[in-house]
Design a protein that fits this description.
It holds the Pfam family Response_reg. GO terms for molecular function: RNA binding. The protein contains seven helices and five strands, in the order βαβαβαβαβααα. It is α/β, with parallel strands linked by helices and about 200 residues long.
Length: about 200
């Protein structure tokens, strides 16, 4: 989504008042955004978001079936798209609930056209940053897990073949290069072979 022009940003909007939905759609369209779906309640908004996979979801807070904050919480949990909340209320409790629900932006009605684009663009940027951080966390966890497996496999080679730590590591690296396998895959193979040998002896 990086470097996207507003024309390609796909948005789902939800408000229980048809006239507000119409105004919002026209406003977003005039700013160059693509409104791909509309809903009158939070539950339908979630279903649309799952089906259409938009880049952003704009929800009114006060809606039947499921309010905007509850819907935002579910959407944030799924990591589908950033959520911007619209509300005629600016009470502290609502703002706190919205923050806890993982909302990426907040607009108090009536808002001006000039306020809409910055909130949308900031929400998109925050969501991209969050996704990048989540990917980095996963990569770090995988790297740590691989390191643990490599250390264990190295220990087995040292114990079984009487190798030094550096010799065990060099042997694993050679197997890795010769077979075009990652060090993690080599470590897993060594651990599995050792496990099978231990069972059969």
């Amino acid at each position: 989504m990086a470097g996207r022009s507003p024309q390609t940003v796909r948005i789902v909007i939800a408000d229980d008042e048809p006239i507000i939905r119409l105004d919002l759609r026209e406003l977003l369209t005039s700013l160059g955004y693509d409104v791909v779906g509309e809903a009158a309640d939070g539950r339908t908004a979630i279903e649309l978001a799952r089906k259409l996979k938009p880049d952003l979801i704009i929800l009114d807070i006060k809606m039947p079936e499921m309010d905007g904050i509850d819907a935002a919480e579910e959407l944030s949990r799924d990591g589908l798209a950033p959520v911007v909340l619209l509300t005629a209320y600016s009470e502290r409790e609502l703002v706190d609930r919205a923050k806890a629900a993982g909302v990426a932006g907040y607009l108090v009605k009536p808002f001006r056209e000039s306020e809409l684009m910055p909130v949308i663009e900031l929400a998109l940027a925050r969501f991209r940053d969050l996704q990048r951080l989540e990917r980095q966390v996963v990569e770090l966890q995988e790297a740590l897990e691989a390191r643990k497996l490599i250390e264990r496999a190295k220990g087995i080679l040292m114990q079984v073949h009487g190798l030094s730590e550096s010799e065990a590591f060099q042997r694993m690296r050679r197997i890795s290069m010769d077979n075009r396998k990652s060090m993690r895959e080599v470590a897993e193979a060594i651990l599995l072979a050792h496990q099978l040998e231990s069972r059969s002896s």
